[in-house]
């Protein structure tokens, strides 16, 4: 946590994002940070009483009896403790805030900090003036109210002290290994039918029928669990489904309960305790549970380390929710070698999100998603494994072939990235931050400029004439895939010169990248930039008037249209994929000696000018 210690000295607000969602030790990390930073008085803010109790227990293990600790809320009023674990619903009230001086606390820790834009949290944050606000969340982009303007990153001044994703956490052995099995479901209903507010009795019967119950139980027994007995969580689409399935499991001899928002904290805690307990500890009043059924109340803030089996009986809503639910079983525990994840895959439109979630790859490139399904075990490092049965694979492939709502996915990725970096992103930023593949954006919108026109409505935008639009569209269409480097070199040379020769291009490639090309290949690249890289005559007729350049004597070329245009907004219509998922392409053929081939059409605000910037970097030795 060196980064946190450093930032705490210079920034008042710091956010720690744990993108594995659970099990990586957010609470312990904050406790160690408080100890190392020497803070005497700390407020730990939560939105549920169970979280306050869990956090207090973790802090006591770190501090022992060196600090007095107490809870505020849920019937507790330990306002004088050194370290206070408070419920925001209690503390945000004016009378309770006034019990403290605004500078009372050295640090205020906001657990599940994606809730911090809420009014209750804001009242607390506006009242207190600590040395440090420390936010911790696994889902910084999640918003309960759907208001994209309430930006968690902005609240913490874009200071991300540390973040870790599932793959890195598994590599570093921070989480319990898991064995994921994608199993074909037998309840053949669609997303719309499963998510309908008033589901028909016919479709509800398919979700809760005896045949499906037998299928789930057979698979759960077959794939098993680690430990003496099963301690499982089962996620369903609706509370009524949870209740019905729980009743049917109980009639077959299992011990289960269904939890929802209707249950009190005490009822939930009792269920968690029963799930975690051993058979030897059973009493007449307290019997162990085999499974807890729920919809979403277990997605966050639940610490049952003993969970050794997670069953998913609902469509994948999003990669975030998928990993939140999978993460319920990822905490390490004594006598727990691994957790089994059973995902029953139906005919759902969002099946493509399963490999997206497991891989952590947010590019939404269809070819890349298919590779993750095929590669299976190579998706997750360490001892964890990923398996799909053949029917489940086919269902995922069908979903990939007809991905719906891509424009919505692109917008969500854009908003997330814009919030993270605090400005309108360049197209290059999508690669650098691991967001959606720019090729996907161009496929939907033709150019990044057109996308910005659509998404940044009501704001001043740069005005491009028809020729400028045509140039951006053509370059995005032909060069973005990064197959040939010479066109990029030509455009880069024209940033500074009116006339260049084929030898200038060859010399640049040879000197900088040890890459050799003939004059003929350079001349072919000139033709590409003149609009010849099209398959149909009508396309050529459209693009031939771009006038980016023209031949100017033997083996020389002249820039006809200077690539600089008046604008107010940063527009980035093209950038070659520089991430490792493209490395095979970059190492093959003419790109074999290049690691990165970056096309940046980077249009900054400086002097309100648009500049097309292209550059390439040589391959690192370790690759």
Mind explaining what this structure looks like?
- The chain is an alpha/beta fold and 623 residues long.
- It is built from 27 helices and 22 strands.
- The strands form five sheets. An eight-stranded mixed beta sheet has the order 4-3-5-2-6-7-1-8. A seven-stranded parallel beta sheet has the order 11-12-10-13-14-9-15, sandwiched between helices.
- Helix 14 (319-326) links the parallel strand 13 (309-312) and strand 14.
- Helix 2 packs across helix 3, helix 14 packs across helix 15 and helix 23 crosses helix 24.
- Residues 563-623 have low confidence and may be disordered.
Could you provide a short overview of the structure?
The protein is built from 27 helices and 22 strands. The chain is an alpha/beta fold and 623 residues long.
Which properties best describe this structure?
alpha/beta; 623 residues; 22 strands; 40% helix; seven-stranded parallel beta sheet; 27 helices; eight-stranded mixed beta sheet
Strand order of the largest sheet: 4-3-5-2-6-7-1-8
**Average pLDDT, all residues:** 79
Helix share bin: 40-55%
Structural class by SSE content: alpha/beta
Percent of residues in beta strands: 15-25%
For the sheet with most strands, the description reads:
8 strands, mixed
User: Number of helix segments?
Assistant: 27
Instruction: Measure the end-to-end span.
Output: 29 Å
Overall body shape: globular
């Amino acid at each position: 946590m060196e980064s946190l210690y450093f930032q705490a000295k210079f920034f008042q607000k710091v956010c720690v994002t744990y993108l594995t969602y659970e099990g990586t030790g957010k609470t312990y990390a904050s406790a160690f940070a408080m100890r190392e930073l020497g803070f005497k008085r700390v407020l730990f803010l939560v939105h549920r009483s169970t979280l306050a109790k869990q956090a207090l227990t973790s802090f006591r293990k770190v501090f022992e009896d060196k600090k007095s600790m107490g809870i505020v809320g849920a019937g507790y009023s330990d306002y004088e403790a050194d370290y206070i674990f408070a419920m925001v619903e209690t503390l945000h009230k004016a009378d309770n805030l006034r019990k403290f001086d605004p500078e009372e606390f050295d640090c205020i820790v906001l657990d599940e900090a994606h809730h911090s834009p809420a009014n209750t949290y804001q009242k607390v944050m506006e009242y207190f003036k600590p040395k440090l606000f420390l936010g911790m969340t696994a889902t910084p982009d999640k918003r309960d109210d759907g208001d994209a303007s309430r930006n968690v990153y902005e609240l913490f001044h874009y200071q991300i002290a540390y973040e870790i994703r599932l793959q890195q956490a598994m590599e570093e052995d921070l989480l319990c290994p898991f064995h994921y099995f994608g199993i074909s479901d037998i309840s053949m209903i669609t997303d719309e039918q499963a998510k309908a507010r008033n589901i028909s009795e016919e479709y509800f019967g398919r979700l809760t029928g005896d045949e499906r119950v037998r299928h789930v139980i057979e698979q759960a027994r077959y794939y098993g669990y680690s430990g003496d007995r099963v301690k499982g969580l089962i996620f369903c689409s609706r509370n009524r489904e949870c209740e019905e399935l729980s009743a049917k499991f109980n009639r077959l001899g299992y011990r289960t309960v269904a939890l929802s928002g209707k249950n009190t904290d005490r009822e939930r805690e009792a269920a968690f305790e029963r799930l975690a307990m051993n058979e030897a500890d059973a009493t007449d009043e307290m019997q162990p549970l085999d499974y807890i059924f729920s919809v979403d109340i277990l997605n966050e803030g639940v610490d049952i380390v003993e969970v050794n089996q997670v069953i998913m009986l609902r469509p994948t809503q999003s990669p975030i929710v998928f990993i939140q639910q999978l993460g319920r079983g990822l905490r390490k525990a004594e006598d727990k070698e691994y957790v089994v994840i059973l995902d029953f895959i139906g005919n759902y439109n969002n099946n493509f999100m399963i490999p997206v979630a497991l891989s952590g790859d947010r590019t939404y490139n269809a070819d890349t998603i298919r590779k993750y399904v095929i590669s299976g075990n190579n998706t997750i490092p360490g001892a964890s494994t990923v398996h799909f049965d053949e029917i489940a694979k086919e269902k995922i492939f069908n979903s990939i072939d007809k991905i719906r709502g891509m424009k919505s996915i692109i917008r969500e990725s854009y908003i997330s990235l814009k919030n993270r970096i605090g400005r309108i992103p360049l197209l290059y930023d999508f690669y650098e931050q691991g967001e959606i593949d720019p090729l996907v954006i161009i496929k939907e919108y033709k150019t990044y400029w057109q996308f910005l026109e659509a998404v940044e409505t009501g704001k001043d935008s740069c005005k491009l004439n028809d020729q400028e639009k045509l140039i951006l569209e053509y370059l995005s269409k032909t060069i973005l895939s990064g197959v040939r480097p010479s066109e990029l070199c030509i455009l880069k040379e024209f940033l500074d010169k009116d006339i260049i020769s084929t030898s200038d291009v060859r010399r640049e490639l040879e000197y900088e990248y040890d890459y050799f090309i003939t004059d003929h290949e350079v001349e072919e690249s000139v033709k590409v930039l003149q609009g010849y890289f099209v398959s149909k005559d009508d396309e050529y007729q459209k693009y031939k008037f771009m006038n980016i350049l023209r031949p100017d004597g033997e083996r020389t070329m002249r820039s006809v249209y200077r690539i600089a245009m008046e604008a107010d907004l940063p527009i980035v219509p093209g950038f070659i994929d520089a991430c490792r998922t493209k490395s095979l392409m970059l190492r093959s053929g003419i790109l074999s000696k290049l690691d990165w081939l970056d096309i940046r059409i980077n249009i900054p605000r400086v002097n309100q000018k648009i500049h097309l910037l292209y550059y390439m970097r040589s391959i690192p030795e370790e690759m």
